[in-house]
Amino acid sequence: METLMIVLTLFLGACNSKVISNDANTQPKTSFYDLQYTSIDGQVIDFKQYKGKKLLIVNTASECGFTPQYSDLEKLNEEYGTKVVVLGFPANNFGGQEPGSNTEIKGFCKKNYGVTFQLFEKSSVKGDDKNVVYQWLTDKNKNGWNDQEPTWNFCKYLINEKGELVKFFPSKIKPTDTEIISML
Asked: What would the pLDDT profile of 109-121 be if each residue is shown by its tens digit?
């Protein structure tokens, strides 16, 4: 019962999180394009290839109440792929809701949601062991303004064509929500 209360409290906190944006238009201290990370297939992806494109970065999980957002992410990818690149980062940071291996995660996403957008290897997205992408996304000394870590699975970070982080969206904001679509 105590575990259920903790999970419920965390979930409600994720639902009540606020959208945070870079209203001051501050410049990042380091470039997002200098980063690299390993794909779910084990290939190193150099983020320089995304220069000039908007990016929606999402921490994902296969056993979460927000998991159906994979469908919305794929829809966004299909309908707006010329305007935004979707990058998914499976993580097991919230309630143990991503227990699978990279192979299992990839298979689950393909079979259940037809995911074709880029997925990366399972990693941590918060705390001391967070991956280099989330270190950049959540450190205002690196990105210029934001220190908001994901509050639950399926939080979203929007990066503009210049590689600047411009907005944080909590889990409850769907990828196809007008708040996101209007910024593409």
From this structure: 999 999 999 999 9
